[in-house]
Amino acid sequence: MGRVALVTGGNRGIGRAIAARLVTEGYRVAATSRNGEVPEGVLGVACDITDQAQVEAAFATVEQQLGPVEVLVANAGITRDTLLMRMKDDDWDAVIDTNLTGTFRVVRRAARAMMKARFGRIVLISSVVGLIGSAGQVNYAASKSGLVGLARSVARELGSRGVTANVVTPGFIRTDMTAGLGEDLVAKYNAQIPVGHLGEADDIANAVAFLASDAAGYISGAVLPVDGGLGMGH
């Protein structure tokens, strides 16, 4: 039986690709989402990670049906983009509570079983924006930057228990969200990316699959950019 993996926000885009990839790698995979829709072969669990009670219930379901979580991929996140002077407190609070505090909640809950088993893989999905910044995304950039400090602190705390914690920072990835961008805007983004094109969700899934594997057992506290070179040097 493969190890148990939990992916948050596994119903679409990058999270869905990660969940599907881990299934092909032989993991027993569960994925959370607010509506419970997930790829075939994945245990879907409805969960809003801003609610601690729902986080507890989701982990209890996974543990009952699959076993203790050995690999956690914290991917769930939202955006509420607007310029700094127009950003309301609610816009800030919602993004921080989901992207940063919600990730803290699932990492804290997953750490229980990982420490007991003396094995765990924690992979946080950040963003190149968290490293280089982005106009109109002060809240999102702050939340994604915070994940680096979170992961590196966890790596130091839990490393002696066989638990690694790493961060993947996607660049501009072709998803349903970017599908709505006009050709001119996509061309502008492509011009900023050294490899000259947007990435695919599978590019992120490949990086996560590696960091979750036994081959990455001596990698912890790392930030792995998957951005076509956009954020190099940060």
Automatic annotation (TrEMBL):
Pfam families hit by this protein: adh_short_C2 (PF13561)
Gene Ontology MF terms in the entry: 3-oxoacyl-[acyl-carrier-protein] reductase (NADPH) activity; NAD binding
Domain Ketoreductase: 3-176
Active site annotation, chain numbering: 140 (proton acceptor)
BP terms from Gene Ontology: fatty acid biosynthetic process
Protein keywords: Fatty acid biosynthesis, Fatty acid metabolism, Lipid biosynthesis, Lipid metabolism, Membrane, NADP, Oxidoreductase, Transmembrane, Transmembrane helix
Catalyses which reaction(s): a (3R)-hydroxyacyl-[ACP] + NADP(+) = a 3-oxoacyl-[ACP] + NADPH + H(+)
Pathway annotation: Lipid metabolism; fatty acid biosynthesis
InterPro entries xrefs: 3oxo_ACP_reduc (IPR011284), KR_dom (IPR057326), NAD(P)-bd_dom_sf (IPR036291), Sc_DH/Rdtase_CS (IPR020904), SDR (IPR050259), SDR_fam (IPR002347)
EC number, as in UniProt: 1.1.1.100
Keyword Metal-binding carried by entry: no
Transmembrane segments: 122-142
Keyword Lipid metabolism: yes
Top-level EC class: oxidoreductase
Residues reported in the UniProt entry to bind NADP(+): 9-12, 75, 140-144, 173
Complex formation: Homotetramer.
Family in the record: Belongs to the short-chain dehydrogenases/reductases (SDR) family.
Protein task: Catalyzes the NADPH-dependent reduction of beta-ketoacyl-ACP substrates to beta-hydroxyacyl-ACP products, the first reductive step in the elongation cycle of fatty acid biosynthesis.
Name of the protein this chain belongs to: 3-oxoacyl-[acyl-carrier-protein] reductase
